[in-house]
Amino acid sequence: MRLFLAIIAVGSAFSFAAAFDGPAERRILCPSNRSGSVGLFLMMMDGSDPQSVAVNSWKDSYPSWSHDGKKIAFASNREGAFHIYVMDADGANATQLTSESVADYYPAWSPDDKKIAFSRELSQQDQDIFIMDADGSNPTNLTNNPSMDACPDWSPDGKKIAFSSNRSGQGSHLYTMDADGRNVQEITKVDSTLPFMCPAWSPDGKKILFAEGTGNGAELHICNADGTNRRQLTKQGALNTQCAWSSDGKKIAFQHLERGGRGSSLYIMDADGKNPTEILKEEGPTNGGRPAWKPNVK
Q1: What are the φ/ψ torsions at residue 42 (nearest 5 degrees)?
Q2: C-alpha span between 87 and 282 (Å, rounded)
Q3: Helix (H) and strand (E) counts for the chain?
């Protein structure tokens, strides 16, 4: 199993991290298969000094930081099917929040950390967006549509949720809805061959980042929150999907998957798509490899 890229000297790591998102500390959480199973690692912005947060014989994936920096929500198959869990930021006190016989993925905290949205797989052709209280109580189906509604992400003001859906019958499109599930609006008209577009709302609420599949590949695109001014950001080739903004909105982390499952990488680039830098290289794909930036909490 290939390891993370070589550790850079402490002084260089400080300069690199400070240029990204604040002081020199571990800033980015990412699933990795470096331990033989998929676990969560917190690392510096150059990929160095990885610290195990949750490693076991299961698959812990799709991490999401609470906005106060105290909790991490994630999906895991610790009890067989994938369910949503929450743990402390250091990996302690993991608590299972969902327990239905179906699979749950892609948790996302509301801006006030009182709610968690997630994707529930009701069948191979049907996923819905659910919302629940942060302690797992009061789960509510927001979309309730016989299609693949998945990958929720909250707008910074907490009023909207972006998600991916194939409900149009013409491939995956990007949608937004009110936080209570009302006022569903399609904001992209370009068909994507990806099953999920993995949207990520910018910290200022003005833009949405998403993956769009064409042919045998996928690249990251960006548009205004209303779907206008859509443009392509990455030109990496192969599959570029799971993505996340740094809390200052200056950087984007994303997962790059090589064709044929030969390997996966974590990249960081400027918010305008410039200077893509590979910081993590692994053998084989890492399922659920969504990165999560540690919040800047004052």
Answers
A1: -110, 125
A2: 26
A3: 1, 24
Please answer whether residues 149 and 102 qualify as being in contact, where contact means their C-beta atoms are separated by less than 8 angstroms. Answer: no
Which of 172, 258, 168 has its CA nearest to residue 216?
A: 258
Q: Which residues does the chain have with pLDDT short of 70?
A: 1-26, 35-36, 54-57, 261, 284-285, 298
- Render the chain in DSSP notation, one character per residue: ---PSPPPPHHHHHHHHHHHHSSSS--EEEEE-TTSS-EEEEE-TTS-S-EEEE-SSS-EEEEEE-TTSSEEEEEEEEESEEEEEEEETTS-S-EE----SSEEEEEEE-TTSSEEEEEEEEETTEEEEEEEETTS-S-EES---SSB-EEEEE-TTSSEEEEEE-TTSSSBEEEEEETTS-S-EE---S-BSSS----EE-TTSSEEEEEEEETTEEEEEEEETTS-S-EE-----SEEEEEEE-TTSSEEEEEEE-GGG-EEEEEEEETTS-S-EEEEEEES--TT---EEPP---
- Coil, helix or strand for 12? helix
**Could you tell me which of 233, 143, 239, 122 has the C-alpha nearest to residue 186?**
143
Q: What's the whole-model pTM score?
A: 0.89
Q: How far apart are CA 243 and CA 246, in angstroms?
A: 10
Residue 13 phi/psi, 5-degree rounding, is -60, -40
Q: What is the dihedral of CA 168, 173, 178, 183, to 10 degrees?
A: -30
Give, in degrees to the nearest 5, the angle at Cα 33 between 27 and 34.
Answer: 80
Give Dmax over CA atoms of the chain in angstroms. 53
Whole-number pLDDT of residue 104: 97
What is the spatial distance between Cα 211 and Cα 198, in angstroms, rounded to a whole number?
6
- Provide the β-strand partners of residue 144: none
